[in-house]
Amino acid sequence: MTERITKSMAKNIYYGGGMFALLIFLGLTLDxxxxxxxxxxxxxxxxxxxEGKKIWENNNCVGCHTLIGEGAYYAxxxxxxxxxxxxxxxxxxxxxxxxxxxxxxLDIPNRRKMPQFNLTEQEVNSLADFLIWTSxxxxxxxxxxxxx
Amino acid sequence: xxxxxxxxxxxxxxxxxxxxxxxxLFGLLMGVQYIYGDFLFPLIPFNxxxxxxxxLLIVLLLFGFMGATYYxxxxxxxxxxxxxxxxxxTFWVFAVxxxxxxxxxxxxxxxxxxALTFNNLLPTMGRxxxxxxxxxxxxxxxxxxxxxxxxxxxxxxxxxxxxxxxxITGLLGLALFFLFxxxxxxxxxxxxxxxxxxxxxxxxxxxxxxxxxxLAFVLIKxxxxxxxxxxxxxYLIIAMTMVSGILxxxxxxFYMGAPEYWLWIGSISSAVEPLPFFLMxxxxxxxxxxxxxxxxNEIALTWAKGTAVMAFLGGGVWGFxxxxxxxxxxxxxxQLTAAHGHLSFYGAYVMIVFTIISYAMPIxxxxxxxxxxxxQKRELTAFWMMNIGMxxxxxxxxxxxxxxxxxxxxxxxxxxxxxxxxxxxxxxMVRAGFGALVFLGLMTYFTSFFxxxxx
Lengths: 148, 455
Prior knowledge:
By secondary structure, chain A is mainly alpha-helical. Chain A has helices at residues 7-39, 47-58, 81-86, 90-102, 121-135; strands at 66-67, 70-71. The radius of gyration of chain B is 22 Å and the shape is globular.
């Protein structure tokens, strides 16, 4: 089949096709950037949520957990941990988070361990706010079940 | 060796292989910690092991690409490297930066590391694969720019070939898309969206150009097939790569907060993504069939063909398995992703580095006809050990992913993540076993360097 294709034809498909794909990609990128604030409820992105994201990053949480399906697969998905462990109730979830973060690492032999990060009460609160905000992002109905 | 400046490739190759040994070692440690949570805890928590594992991979591949470039560009352009001295300085800067970064990961708690390295000035840390402290990221930019300068100046003063053009396009893309590593919006979704501009557009677009160029070079050298013919294939492969790979980024935008149209765009384009890999297999095997010369370095050609096949399996087949949106709904964020990641990074990129090393290293060591037959035989054993190990490991992770999906996501009797992981423990043992085989394969490969011709 490749006999009929010449080098210059192949070259043109590369440049033409590549540029075409790139242009569509750029166009859709602009549209996506435009849509993200609404889909992620950016209006609810409080200072505490932004602070929580920094804490999430500074402790490399993504090195064990997934968040909206991205990250490592060593520990549970956290996009819907607010619904799973907090019953979709802010007060319940924040109480749970304070307790959970404080008792790490759990003393259960050979269970996978989460380190003790020594976060302050306010830091845990921001982290919780960040996870609550994340749980409300429109991710096209993902995750499929509460178990993440 | 036709040009004396090609010799700068040697330290790059050696260092890439040392880093690979480190990468596999940390992979093994992770494999054990997966089964026994207390292993190495709290000395080295999982996130640190993983950071070292993945960062070593990225850096070793960059070293491999750089070595490959410094080796092939003088021969392609028919002129000495613009500045061999700069290439050596770049090597040391990169090596020292890399080693310091890994030591930082291992000996400083991550939160402290962010504070120590001025992350508050420009927060870029704590994102998967891009965990490097700011000074390291800046170092990578400096290294890549000086490398690009060196290569571009050499190409400008010498003969221009399709291989060098494709290679430089790939390198420019690599440099350009890395800049997104410095852009971290406060909005997590925007952050994730642009994070893929570095991650996806590296491995499924620009790096494939580099891969194609290196593969074409080795095929020309080991089969003696006419360059016109090789060039046509190379263009065809990278054309398919660009057409499918750029919009294929969309398969990462299904379920992370981006608009619905990516479900269609991503599914359709990435359904085409196996095609360039399939063409690569046809390419390698057709060139071998039509070869004009019988090169004594047979194992180099074996690696080249192996790269095409394993890249197709890892990138093409294992990618396609979960790239359609309705399937990805269930597979997103499971061990299936890890399975695909392992086989594709190994099959496409680690193997192309082995290919060029297998071809170039004997020449750099004063053996223009390749290593002695006994050494090549040892290398072939290593080739199979590593390939079988990686395939076994991938199949184990795939099984783990399927069990995980059935446990957590399908039906009504769902169990939680930790319970599901416990039910997969046996499979993780199999995975660790195959991982050990890969490591032994690499050790066998190392010994092949020291096999002497029988007197």
